[in-house]
Write a structure and sequence with these properties.
Blueprint (H helix, E strand, L loop, with lengths): L2 H7 L3 E7 L6 E6 L3 H13 L13 H19 L1
Antiparallel strand pairs: 1-2
Length: 80
């Protein structure tokens, strides 16, 4: 099964796949519906011997702004 098909079978969506030069052969960018679905993907892919993945959770700009605002609120609350 292709990685794209595996991602889609687990409810995700594959954005793109790049062949790369350097320490990694491939970089695939995809979205999964949850962290649990992502872990399932990793565990199944490892079991089947396809990958030794490095997972980097990414945040779009709006998510990043929301996260940093929450952190700033917590810091202010802790110092008051």
């Amino acid at each position: 099964m292709l990685s794209r098909q595996r991602v889609e079978a687990m409810g995700g969506r594959s954005e793109c796949l790049f062949a790369t030069m350097g320490p990694y052969d491939l970089v695939q960018i995809f979205e999964m519906p949850s962290d649990a679905a992502m872990m399932e993907y990793v565990m199944v892919a490892r079991r089947d011997g396809f990958v030794d993945p490095v997972i980097l959770k990414a945040f779009d700009n709006d998510q990043w702004i929301k996260i940093t605002q929450e952190v700033q609120k917590r810091i202010r609350s802790a110092t008051e």
